[in-house]
Each structure stands twice: as structure tokens, then as C-alpha cells.
Design brief:
The chain is an all-alpha fold. Helices cover 75% and strands 0% of the residues. The two termini are 38 Å apart.
């Protein structure tokens, strides 16, 4: 049984910490004379948010089978990326673009948690919650693929912004420095190349395990299944267009952002196997 003070950690604890870290990252750029102070402050709040986030996951142990659990786990991994990048002097722009994604995932998790039936949290099949090896592997593959899709989204957003700046011939000294278009395109391409096989393996493993669960009948038309299938198709098209027809980077960026939107739909949808899910 965890101490009562640990059980009092809420979404607001780490969500506000990430928000303050983001504001201080902006302060470090807008206020050059206080750059060091703001950067250390951002790191402090980022670490505090990560610690509170970790405590919340340990104490509440939300399963990825429910929407808020999936969103929180994805946000936690991305928060690790943020802290790692700050400690290794990564570009400030990356933190400014990544933190809003983390904050948005936490906010979405808090909203959907209020709407989830209690039964959806309490009883889910063993292979989904990771009580069996293959179920844990399935969830891990999907989580890692989600991280890749999120990185692709951030890189795409930065690419489109940088491309717009170049078209408008905006003075680089007056705006937030970003990576070059070539580096952003490479980052997006690598994220897609990593995420697609992970997503494919996770979905194939889920299909293999699905018939073994008694609740799998008549669930092919659930929102979770349809959105995840659509996500895989979009990423398959992305891979084909990128390597087969050499899709222009700008269109690749827009499609990557559409894939991220589908990912959010898939994560926010109730798992069809869990009580209270999308059962016809």
C-alpha cells in the first residue's frame, strides 16, 4: 500500500510542471540575459513533472488497455525524451515543440479518465494488461510505435514552419532557430521507418492473441480496431510513397500529422475487450 501522500499525486501535479517548464523554455529564448536561470528552472520543473508522472503511474498503475493509461504512458516516454534532450544540450526548439505534445496528452488523459466507466479500469483480459509475456510485448510494441509517430509529428510540424519561413524570407535572427529542412526531413523519415515495423509487429501479435480471448467476438467494427487499422494503412502508404515514389517532404509532413491524429483517436478509444468498451 503506497503512502497517502503519494496517492495524492494528480494529473495537475505533473501537467502543471510540464506547462511551467514550457513557459520557462520560452522565457530562456525571449529573455537572453536570464537564459541560464530559465533553462535551469525549466529543467527543474521538467524533472519534477517526470518524477510526479512516474509516481502516478506506479501508484495508480493504469493499464494501456484504457484510454487514459495509453495516453499517460506515451506522455511519460516523451517526457523522458525531453529531459534527456535538455541534459544533452539538444536544440531549444525541440523542447518548445515537444512539451506541448506532452501537455496535450496529459490533458486528454485527464479528460477521458472522467468519462471512463469504473468497470473499464477494473477488469481487462490478462494478455492486455501484461500479466502474460506476449501481452506485455504487444503493448510495448504499440507504445514504441506511438513514440515514433509522435516524433514524426513534431518533426513534421517543425518542417512545415521552417519551410514557411523560407518561403516568406523571414529573417532567421528574429525567430526561434529551427533545424534545417534536410535534418527535419531525415528525422521524420527515420521516425516513420522505425514506427511502421513496430506498429506492424504489434498489430500482428494482437491479431494472433485476439481469438484466444472470449470477448473478441463481433469486435471488428469497434472504434479501437478501425482507427488502429486506419493508422497502419496510412503509415503503409507513407512508407510506400516515401521510398517507392519519392513523396515530396512537405506532403510527407502533412500525412505524418494526419497519422498522429489517427493515433490519438486510437489511443482515446476504449479497448473492445474491456468491460464498458465498444461492445455492439
Amino acid at each position: 500500500m503506497a503512502p497517502s501522500w503519494l496517492q495524492n499525486v494528480t494529473y495537475a501535479c505533473f501537467g502543471l510542471s510540464y506547462l511551467l517548464a514550457w513557459l520557462l523554455e520560452w522565457g530562456a529564448w525571449l529573455w537572453p540575459s536570464g537564459d541560464r536561470l530559465c533553462r535551469w528552472g525549466a529543467l527543474g520543473f521538467g524533472l519534477a513533472g517526470l518524477v510526479a508522472h512516474t509516481v502516478f503511474l506506479i501508484v495508480r498503475h493504469p493499464t494501456p488497455a484504457v484510454p487514459d493509461g495509453a495516453l499517460l504512458l506515451l506522455a511519460w516516454v516523451l517526457a523522458l525524451f525531453y529531459v534527456y534532450g535538455v541534459l544533452h544540450q539538444a536544440g531549444r526548439a525541440w523542447a518548445l515543440f515537444l512539451l506541448p505534445v506532452i501537455i496535450g496528452l496529459v490533458v486528454l488523459a485527464g479528460l477521458v479518465a472522467r468519462l471512463e466507466p469504473a468497470a473499464l479500469r477494473d477488469t481487462v483480459p490478462a494478455w492486455i494488461t501484461g500479466q502474460r509475456f506476449w501481452g506485455a510485448l504487444h503493448g510495448t510494441l504499440i507504445l514504441l510505435a506511438s513514440v515514433g509517430i509522435s516524433v514524426s509529428f513534431v518533426a513534421s510540424l517543425m518542417y512545415l514552419l521552417q519551410a514557411r519561413r523560407l518561403r516568406k524570407k523571414i529573417d532567421p535572427g528574429r525567430v526561434l532557430p529551427l533545424l534545417s529542412l534536410e535534418r527535419l526531413e531525415l528525422l521524420n523519415r527515420r521516425a516513420i521507418a522505425v514506427a511502421f515495423p513496430l506498429l506492424t509487429a504489434g498489430l500482428l501479435l494482437g491479431l494472433i492473441l485476439w481469438p484466444a480471448d472470449p470477448g473478441s467476438q463481433h469486435e471488428w467494427l469497434s472504434v479501437k480496431v478501425l482507427s488502429t487499422g486506419a493508422l497502419w494503412l496510412v503509415f503503409g502508404v507513407l512508407v510506400y510513397l516515401r521510398y517507392g515514389t519519392h513523396l515530396p517532404p512537405r506532403r510527407l509532413a502533412w500525412l505524418s500529422m494526419a497519422a498522429f491524429a489517427l493515433l490519438l483517436v486510437a489511443l482515446m478509444a476504449a479497448h473492445p475487450f474491456a468491460p464498458g468498451g465498444d461492445t455492439p
